[in-house]
């Protein structure tokens, strides 16, 4: 048995599942797939796949999404990078086109001569920032604050496991998990 | 009673012509009748009646808190209100109930104001009719025939205002007349230890003096604001206003704000960048919407944010992140900050040359019908509609839109006055003089309420067009 479980086995299963499930949906849905493969010592390594269902016609066909074929500044790499940084997906070709337009719009700033001009961070830059003295004057509102969270255990906000990064685009497989 | 100014209503309450509870009930009744307008996201009926009852007790004892005691107010739904849902009109904050009041809300309540509810807005205030980060206290005011005032940046606390662009956001005040705006400003302005971007002077209430002599005034007319897209009607009102000042003895001169045409682009970069940062807090963990995905933190954040934000918000976050990328930071973000300084300097130069107040249009035309409006996307609309109001936010200056006249279609049109930084009182004094000269017709709410049968027809039409 190879160190990594054979990807082809999973791909076949994936394609079968994709063909069955209603992947073609107009509503954008994040779908997660857990693909485990075994390391040399038999350890499980859970890798999370995230596949945005980007609209009708793509998932399950094995074709790459149109967004890989681009002109202009917003390359596939940039898209991937931005989606990871922003943790917000483009979701459609229109969104990519909108970004390209936004960049083209912003490019108009090049026409302005800013030689020797300092960037302005705040209109109040000439004033001294007010600083409070470092004394505790309020707090003790744990219960109120915890009330707004969906998942809480005792005094903790509960998060899913961390240190699992979103998958790269070329590793995405269009199959759904349990 | 509901169509009167704040000061008139306040006087009526003091004299016992109407009680706070009666006033509150009338207000609630009108809100219900106009529900099809979808102006309110949350109507805080119980809270309002309770506050009205307390106000009534105070009036009976002769211990009213001031001009705002018993006055119905509404607050945009991006201001935190303790115990009352605050959503920013976004799925991301659906069901979010803040445990605290924004400072401005607290200051209104401390004066006895009665909170009727939370009003609607574009999601996270990102539309052309958004919050006063780009003009959206003044733009809607101009379209609706009321006074829309944007104070100087730093005068009014932003604590509790869910931020869009921290360096430009300002709570805006919408009232029927300039005096009312001054009354409210007197309550809201002043240092807040919870907002370190407020200036250190404490606030105090003030009364606007009535100008009788404008001969010492110098009014500036920025030539770059005369754009081809400006409707001829608005242009003519602007021109008439300038002539009015001149005929009363004021000095009216043409001035130049050379970088005006770059203000929208500059805003676009700075706004999307700050938005990308500000929206990062919405991850589903501590508050707000959370999706069901549990496999990893990043996956949960990503799905939560996709479900919680609409296209406009997501588009701005992505654009902002693009401009903030290492390879783009200097060419876009820093560049925009430099252009911002040039824009702010334009105003400084003009005010240093002896101009007291600038007079400009507020909007390109009267309000555009909904079906016409939605033909262009959000960024195009913002770029077009905020053209007169945006630069003011870049420079942090005070500005006020005053209704001037009804258009040929019978829709209101407003004009904008821009003042020097922290000279809000002077600005409002000039605006008050102008308001008195212009005598814009007072809204006849009684006719509106009596005409309710036709309202149900409008209701059907409104819901049809919204579905398209």
Q: Main attributes?
A:
heterodimer; A: alpha+beta; two-stranded antiparallel ribbon; 12% strand; disordered N terminus; B: 468 residues; alpha/beta; 7-stranded mixed β-sheet; 3-stranded mixed β-sheet; 17 helices; 10 strands
Structure description:
The complex is a heterodimer of chains A (178) and B (468). By secondary structure, chain A is α+β, with helices and mostly antiparallel strands. Helices cover 25% and strands 12% of the residues of chain A. Chain A contains four helices and four strands, in the order αββαααββ. Chain A has helices at residues 7-20, 76-86, 93-106, 142-146, and strands spanning 30-38, 44-52, 152-153, 156-157. In chain A, the strands form two sheets. Chain A has a two-stranded antiparallel sheet. Chain A has a two-stranded antiparallel sheet with strand order 3-4. In chain A, strand 3 (152-153) and strand 4 form a beta hairpin. The longest helix of chain A is centred in the first third of the chain and has 14 residues, at 7-20. Chain A starts with 6 loop residues before the first helix and ends in a 21-residue tail after the last strand. Mean pLDDT of chain A is 66; it is low at 1-71 and 172-178. With 468 residues, chain B is an alpha/beta fold. Helices cover 44% and strands 11% of the residues of chain B. Chain B has helices at 6-15, 20-33, 45-61, 103-110, 138-144, 178-188, 232-247, 263-278, 297-308, 311-324, 326-352, 370-373, 378-385, 390-395, 424-438, 445-450, 452-467; strands spanning 40-43, 72-76, 114-119, 147-150, 173-175, 218-222, 251-255, 357-361, 399-406, 412-418. Chain B has a seven-stranded mixed sheet with strand order 5-4-9-10-8-6-7, sandwiched between helices. In chain B, strands 1-3-2 form a three-stranded mixed sheet, sandwiched between helices. In chain B, helix 8 crosses helix 10 (311-324) and helix 8 crosses helix 11 (326-352). The mean pLDDT of chain B is 89. At the A-B interface, strand 1, strand 2, helix 2 and helix 3 of A face helix 8, helix 9, helix 10 and helix 11 of B.
């Amino acid at each position: 048995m190879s160190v990594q479980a054979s990807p082809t086995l999973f791909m076949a299963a994936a394609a079968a599942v994709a063909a069955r499930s209603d992947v073609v949906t107009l509503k954008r849905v994040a779908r997660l797939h857990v693909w485990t493969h075994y390391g040399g010592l038999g350890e499980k390594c859970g890798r999370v796949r995230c596949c945005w269902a980007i609209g009708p016609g793509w998932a399950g066909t094995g074709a790459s999404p149109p967004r890989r074929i681009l002109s202009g500044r917003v390359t596939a790499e940039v898209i991937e990078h931005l989606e990871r940084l922003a943790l917000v997906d483009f979701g459609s070709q229109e969104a990519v086109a909108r970004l390209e337009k936004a960049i083209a719009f912003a490019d108009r700033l090049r026409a302005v001569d800013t030689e020797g001009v300092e960037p302005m961070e705040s209109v109040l830059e000439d004033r001294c920032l007010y600083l409070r003295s470092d004394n505790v004057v309020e707090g003790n509102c744990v219960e109120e604050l915890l009330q707004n969270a969906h998942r809480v255990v005792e005094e903790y906000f509960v998060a899913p496991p961390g240190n699992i990064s979103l998958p790269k685009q070329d590793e995405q497989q269009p199959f759904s998990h349990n | 009673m509901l169509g009167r100014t704040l000061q008139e209503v306040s006087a009526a309450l003091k004299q016992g012509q109407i009680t706070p509870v009666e006033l509150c009930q009338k207000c609630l009744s009108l809100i219900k009748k106009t529900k099809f307008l979808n102006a309110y996201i949350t109507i805080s009926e119980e809270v309002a009646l309770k506050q009205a009852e307390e106000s009534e007790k105070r009036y009976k004892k002769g211990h009213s808190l001031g001009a705002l005691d018993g006055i119905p107010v509404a607050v945009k739904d991006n201001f935190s209100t303790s115990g009352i849902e605050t959503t920013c009109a976004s799925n991301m904050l659906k069901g979010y109930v803040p445990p605290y009041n924004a400072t401005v809300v607290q200051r209104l309540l401390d004066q006895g104001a009665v909170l009727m509810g939370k009003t609607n807005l574009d999601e996270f205030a990102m539309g052309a009719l958004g919050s006063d980060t780009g003009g959206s206290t003044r733009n809607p005011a101009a379209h609706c025939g009321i006074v829309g005032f944007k104070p100087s940046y730093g005068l009014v606390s932003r604590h509790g205002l869910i931020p869009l662009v921290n360096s430009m956001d300002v709570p805006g005040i919408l009232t029927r007349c300039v005096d009312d705006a001054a009354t409210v400003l007197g309550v809201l302005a002043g240092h807040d230890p919870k907002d370190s971007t407020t200036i250190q002077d404490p606030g105090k209430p003030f009364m606007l003096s009535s100008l009788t002599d404008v001969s010492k005034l110098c009014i500036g007319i920025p030539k770059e604001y005369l754009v081809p897209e400006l409707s001829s009607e608005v242009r003519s009102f602007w021109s008439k206003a300038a002539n009015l000042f001149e005929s009363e003895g004021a000095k009216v001169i043409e001035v130049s704000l050379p970088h005006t045409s770059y203000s929208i682009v500059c805003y676009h970069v700075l706004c999307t960048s700050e938005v990308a940062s500000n929206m990062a807090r919405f991850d589903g963990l501590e508050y707000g919407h959370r999706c069901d995905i549990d496999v990893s933190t990043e996956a949960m954040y990503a799905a939560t944010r996709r479900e919680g934000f609409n296209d406009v918000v997501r588009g701005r976050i992505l654009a902002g992140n693009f401009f903030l990328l290492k390879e783009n930071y200097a060419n876009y973000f820093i560049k925009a900050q430099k252009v911002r300084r040039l824009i702010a300097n334009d105003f400084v130069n003009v005010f240093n040359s002896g101009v007291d107040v600038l007079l400009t249009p507020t909007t390109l035309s009267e309000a555009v019908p909904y079906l016409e409006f939605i033909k262009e996307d959000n960024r195009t609309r913002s770029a077009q509609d905020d053209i007169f109001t945006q630069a003011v936010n870049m420079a942090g200056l005070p500005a006020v839109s005053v209704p001037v006249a009804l258009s040929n279609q019978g829709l209101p049109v407003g004009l904008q006055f821009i003042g020097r930084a922290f000279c809000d009182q002077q600005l409002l004094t000039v605006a008050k003089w102008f308001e008195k000269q212009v005598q814009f017709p007072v809204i006849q709410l009684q006719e509106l309420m009596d005409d309710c049968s036709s309202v149900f027809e409008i209701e059907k039409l409104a819901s049809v067009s919204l579905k398209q």
